[in-house]
Design brief:
Elements (H helix, E strand, L loop, with lengths): L5 H8 L3 H26 L3 H28 L6 H14 L2 H25 L1 H9 L3 E6 L2 E6 L8 E4 L9 E3 L3 E5 L1 H4 L4 E5 L3 E2 L4 E2 L4 E5 L7 H11 L6 H28 L2 H10 L8 H15 L2 E3 L2 H9 L2 E5 H5 L5 E7 L5 H12 L5 H12 L8 E6 L3 E6 L2 E6 L9 H13 L2 E7 L2 E9 L6 H10 L4 E5 L4 H11 L3 E3 L4 H12 L4 E5 L5 H6 L2 E5 L5 H6 L2 E3 L5 H36 L5 H19 L15 H16 L1 H13 L6 H37 L6 H27 L4 H28 L6
Parallel strand pairs: 11-18, 11-20, 18-19, 20-21, 21-22
Antiparallel strand pairs: 1-2, 1-3, 3-9, 4-7, 4-9, 5-6, 5-8, 10-22, 12-17, 13-14, 14-15, 15-16, 16-17
């Protein structure tokens, strides 16, 4: 495929200047002729007035004929033909005022439609104007400006304050402050630390920083968006072709009605009046205005749609197929739980594992290190580190020989380790075992979590008319079924190859317009096979983005629901504008045929109809508040604050479960100590968090969610959390007075701890899905 450069594409977008000048010149001439004739009529010079109006009419005939011929060359029987007949008819019967009004209407409609498309394509144009042309490359101590095409993978680049990041790469400085709104649609600045990926097209909002290129300009994020913009509008949307089909019967119908009016009444003026009111020059252009407006509105939300046809098809979609990893799930494993052998603490196990895993490139190792950092654990630099491929690293940490990874087959497991195996099987989790000096000491369970915004997204999609939701994945059946059950999907197909995915897509297309959503190279064939392919382009592969019709440039799956809602709205407005305008024209034609509308009055009426439908089509540019509830700045800040606290409180949830696990039939001192420590964490950290949510977060969210009743269920969970915490405190007081946990306390205390752990995890998940997913 021949991909134009941003400069060439921008030139094409602005190459309509000659046509625009012609339309504006016609508007000036038509308006001057109409005004001159009006002044002459006021001065009682009807002959001079007719000359002015006739000149205005003639001035419009030539470009109108040109537009008709241009449409015929493209295979389009446009309604401009009616304008030519009407202009000629007014000259023939001497209705010069009507001819001048048609000329003004024609020029006004063309100018208005051009301005509408210019405004609607503003965001795509802004993307192209924003595209970088060069980069600052450092070679040793030398800094040189080089063309973007000369940047190679591995080059060290310097991004100065205010510069656009030229290619995809990784931050080499301590930190970079970036404005990513061009790609994500989200206002505000983000900080990327050393080693973090950075995408081309974002703006350096802080000081200068260095980055290492990981892709060439052609393969970078911004180049993909430019290629999408290159194709945007290249194909007529089906709804636009539908408008052309309307013209196929509308033009002959107009001619027939005009002929009958002349034949029955014997008046050629009535025939001209019919032609005048049936002159919807910009009328059927209202459909593409609505579609292009929808494209523009979507781009502001970080949704790049390849063309109008894709947007129109997205609005008709009824089946949605989704890849699992990276689409419904984060695509990055996270620590689910940490289990310690008797006598050790989970935090100690996590610290040792993370200290050793600092030197491992494995994706699970990175997740363990990240979790330890989130929990504020101080890591030790390991020594004598070796790693066996497929198993894990071994090294010395704090003077002890530590191994993290997969156990050798046949390794004996104590009871607590067998419980870990069982839980991993039930939760579909991977296990990283920790050994100290050859003895099993703990385990870290990891799982690729469901995106917090996925449940809300799927609910919105069902509300938008998606009837069938399926998950396609190459993963094992057990974890796939669990994700499908959590999200309420209609079906799940697991252990699929790329060829299998294509077969499923083709089978679903036989029943409904089908959307496929994915992010990996293996998803590209399925994206290409679907009616509409949607790529998670923020972290997805170039191949998937190239094969897709829609790219989500921000790593949020809820933008898919926004895109479907916008597509449906744009399509609805397009059809409404075209059909509504044509219906009004038909009514006016009937009145004109009956002699109720003289040509001049009919021309004014048609002008009003045309302006009305184009303005209606421009509604697709407006923000639709129904896309997603809008948070106030205060509520958004609170959401981010409490979301961060959720991460910090994961160790408290682990402590609650660990204390329940440690309770034995005799309730020894170690069990009581664990329960006391857990209660301390509840009182000092968890309960203040819940109280702050009740006082600050929920009142701030209530207006957005529809009132205090919307958070009532969550408030009830707070009450249950506090009740269980008080019950645990009562058990501790009883144990202290007796010097130990009494046997009759164990069942109820264990029930309280397990119940509290369950309520907390469910409560955290509900808040993250229903509330925290609202914030950018």
């Amino acid at each position: 495929m021949n991909h134009a450069t941003p400069a060439a594409l921008l030139h094409r977008l602005t190459a309509t200047g000659t046509s625009r000048r012609l339309e504006r010149a016609l508007l000036v001439v038509a308006a001057a002729a109409l005004l001159g004739g009006g002044i002459a009529r006021l001065l009682d010079a009807p002959g001079l007035a007719d000359v002015f109006w006739a000149l205005g009419t003639v001035a419009a005939v030539v470009p109108a004929v040109w537009w008709v011929l241009a449409g015929l060359r493209r295979g389009q029987a446009g309604v401009d033909l009616i304008a030519v007949l009407a202009l000629g008819g007014t000259l023939a019967v001497g209705e010069y005022l009507a001819g001048a009004l048609i000329a003004l209407m024609l020029a006004t409609g063309r100018t208005l439609e051009d301005a509408a498309q210019h405004r609607a394509s503003h965001d795509l144009r802004a993307l192209l104007e924003h595209a970088p042309r060069s980069a600052q490359r450092r070679t040793g101590a030398e800094l040189a400006t080089v063309p973007l095409a000369q940047v190679a993978v591995g080059d060290l680049l310097v991004v100065r304050p205010g510069d656009v990041v030229p290619v995809d790469g990784r931050v080499e400085s301590d930190a970079a402050v970036l404005d990513e709104s061009v790609l994500t649609g989200e206002a505000g600045q983000v900080e990327r630390l050393r080693g973090a990926p950075v995408r081309s097209g974002v703006v350096n909002a802080g000081g200068a920083f260095e980055m290492r290129a990981t892709a060439t300009a052609q393969d970078s994020t911004y180049a993909q968006i430019v290629r999408l913009a290159q194709q945007a509008g290249a194909e007529s949307a089906p709804v636009v072709r539908l408008a052309d089909r309307y013209a196929v019967w509308f033009v002959p119908l107009t001619v027939v009605v005009a002929g009958l009016a002349w034949l029955i009444s014997g008046s050629a003026v009535r025939a001209v009046a019919v032609l005048v009111v049936a002159t919807p020059c910009p009328l059927l252009l209202a459909a593409p205005v609505a579609i292009v407006s929808g494209l523009s509105r979507a781009s502001r939300l970080g949704v790049i749609v390849r063309d109008g046809g894709a947007l129109e098809n997205l609005g008709r979609a009824r089946t949605l197929l989704l890849d699992k990893t990276g689409t419904l799930t984060r695509g990055r494993p996270r620590v689910l739980d940490v289990t310690a052998a008797p006598g050790l603490e989970p935090a100690h196990v996590l610290r040792l594992a993370a200290s050793l895993d600092q030197y491992s490139p494995h994706v699970l190792a990175q997740a363990i290190v990240d979790t330890a950092g989130e929990r504020g654990l101080e890591l030790t630099v390991p020594t004598d580190v070796t790693e066996e491929p497929g198993r894990g690293p071994t090294g010395t940490v704090d003077g002890r020989r530590v191994f993290v990874g997969r156990l050798a087959p046949g390794t004996a497991r104590p009871d607590w380790a067998r419980a870990v195996d069982n839980r991993a099987l039930l939760d579909g989790a991977a296990v990283a075992w920790l050994t100290l000096d050859g003895e099993l000491a703990g385990a870290v369970l990891l799982r690729d979590p469901v995106r917090h915004d996925a449940p809300r997204t799927l609910r919105q999609l069902r509300s938008a008319g998606i009837r069938r939701l399926l998950m396609l994945t190459g993963d094992r059946a057990a974890p796939a079924r669990e994700v499908a059950a959590v999200l309420g999907l209609d079906d799940v197909r697991a252990e699929l190859t790329p060829r299998d995915k294509v077969a499923v897509v083709r089978a679903e297309r036989e029943h409904a317009v089908t959307v496929m959503v994915g992010d990996g190279v293996n998803d590209a064939p399925a994206l290409a096979a679907a009616d509409i392919g949607v790529a998670m382009g923020a972290r997805g592969s170039t191949a998937s983005s190239e094969a897709a019709d829609v790219v989500l440039t921000t790593d949020r799956v809820d933008r898919l629901a926004d895109a479907v809602t916008l597509a449906q709205r744009a399509r609805r407005i397009a059809v409404q504008s075209a059909l509504g305008g044509m219906l009004m024209s038909l009514v006016a034609m009937a009145a004109a045929a009956a002699g109720l509308l003289p040509p001049a009055v009919g021309a004014l009426l048609q002008e009003a109809i045309d302006v009305a439908v184009i303005l209606n089509a421009l509604r697709a540019l407006r923000v639709d508040q129904g896309v997603r509830p809008a948070l106030t700045p205060v509520a958004e800040a609170l959401v981010h604050r409490f979301a961060d606290e959720h991460h910090d409180l994961q160790d408290v949830l682990d402590a609650v479960r660990d204390a329940a696990d440690r309770l034995s039939d005799t309730g020894g001192p170690a069990a009581l100590t664990a329960v006391e420590e857990t209660h301390r964490l509840l009182v000092e950290r968890l309960l203040p968090h819940e109280h702050a949510e009740e006082r600050e977060l929920y009142p701030a969210l209530a207006p957005t969610l529809g009132g205090p009743e919307a958070t009532a269920t969550m408030s009830r969970a707070h009450t249950e959390i506090e009740r269980l915490s008080r019950r645990i405190a009562t058990h501790i007081e009883l144990a202290r007075s007796a010097g130990r946990l009494a046997p009759e306390q164990l069942d109820d205390l264990r029930s309280c701890l397990y119940g509290l752990n369950t309520v907390l995890r469910l409560h955290f998940t509900q808040e993250e899905e229903n509330y925290f997913s609202l914030a950018p």
